[in-house]
Design goal:
Blueprint: H1 28-44, E1 50-52, E2 62-66, E3 74-84, E4 90-97, E5 100-110, E6 112-118, E7 124-130, H2 132-143, H3 149-152, E8 154-158, H4 162-171, E9 176-178
Bound molecules: zinc ion.
Length: about 180
Amino acid sequence: MEHMKEFYIEYDQSKLNETCAPIDLRDRDLIIQIYDLLRNTLLWLGGGAGLAAPQIDISKQVFIWAKNRDMNNIQLALNPSIEPEIESGTVESLEGCFSLPQKFFHIERYKKIYFDYFDINGKKISRIVEGFEAVILQHEYDHINKNILSNKGKLFKSFNNLREHQEFLENYRKISNYA
Ligand SMILES: [Zn+2]
């Protein structure tokens, strides 16, 4: 039987309101453990654009994201930093969050960002990112800096039941970002 997509993870929400600590890049075991937990949770949720450690009760500067929602291409960011390229402007994004059940928010995101992080091997990466991937990275980066959609975004839609929520998701799949 197909897994019923809940689009929600039930965790103690308190970590969402904490500033996450940097992870020790030499602690390979912990890094792999957190990566596996994040990845397995995202797959269990039926896929999505990304997931951050505080969403699964781990207060560390770690998140994963899937470029183009491709579950075969999940990447890990350790101790990331994001600086907007302000001149490129912003875009209004419609997003949902696995930590906020059955709600969608409008939120302003930068179109283009400078993204620095350490990858799963501890290698420093510096990239300029734009488009959908830039939006997702900003969502995840917010999570490790105690910013969730409900703080920064404007509530667009709230659903009372799972069926309505799923219908909406199907209609808006192309523009909805879930992370
Ligand atoms: Zn989220």
